[in-house]
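To the wet lab folks,

You asked to see what we're planning to order before we commit. Fair enough. Below is the target structure as tokens, and below that is the sequence we designed to fit it. If anything looks off to you, flag it before the synthesis order goes out.
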């Protein structure tokens, strides 16, 4: 089983904001797999599907970013899954817009959604795809991450979320070390 969770904030107010890069990528994964977001479970929009014979759960937590781990914990408990079955996609201000970075473990790095995930699943050792949203030192961080992408960034964020979606799908039936080697080079 593979559980792929994209972090973000629910509602039209937050649609297409920097903090919702995880949700944007999850929408692309669902489209690529021919699925639609029409069910709620685990305090999330969710989809259960099969990819090459592997059970896959896609999650978009509806708990808001700072409590994303609650939804993931509910899903892990229901399926009796382990943190090594988890792949989390989220925005990262320390990467330029358009870049992605895959890692197998690490700290929250100041990201409140990842901090919640770590607290709720009791480990930092889970696969992740960070999606670059850049930063602007002149703009307070909360305003930046809850702000929309600039017109000049649209093409770059589209490319990054496309690549992140490809990486997540590839990771379903490939070792994550192979996935990192393949996608961190791009």
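Sequence we intend to order:
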């Amino acid at each position: 089983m593979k559980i792929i969770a994209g972090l973000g904030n629910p509602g039209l107010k937050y649609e297409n904001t920097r903090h919702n890069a995880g949700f944007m990528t999850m929408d692309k994964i669902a489209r690529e797999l021919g699925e639609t977001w029409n069910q709620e479970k685990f305090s999330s929009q969710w989809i259960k599907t099969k990819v090459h014979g592997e059970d896959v759960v896609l999650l978009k937590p509806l708990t808001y970013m700072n409590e994303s781990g609650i939804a993931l914990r509910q899903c892990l408990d229901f399926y009796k899954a382990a943190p090594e079955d988890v792949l989390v996609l989220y925005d990262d201000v320390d990467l330029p817009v358009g870049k992605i970075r895959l890692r197998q473990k690490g700290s929250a790095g100041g990201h409140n959604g990842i901090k919640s995930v770590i607290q709720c699943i009791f480990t930092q050792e889970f696969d992740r795809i960070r999606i670059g949203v850049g930063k602007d030192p002149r703009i307070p961080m909360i305003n930046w991450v809850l702000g929309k992408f600039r017109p000049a960034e649209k093409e770059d964020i589209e490319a990054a979320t496309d690549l992140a979606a490809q990486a997540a799908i590839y990771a379903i039936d490939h070792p994550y070390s192979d996935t990192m080697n393949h996608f961190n080079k791009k």
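Structural context that might help your review: The mean pLDDT is 96. The radius of gyration is 15 Å.

Thanks,
Computational group
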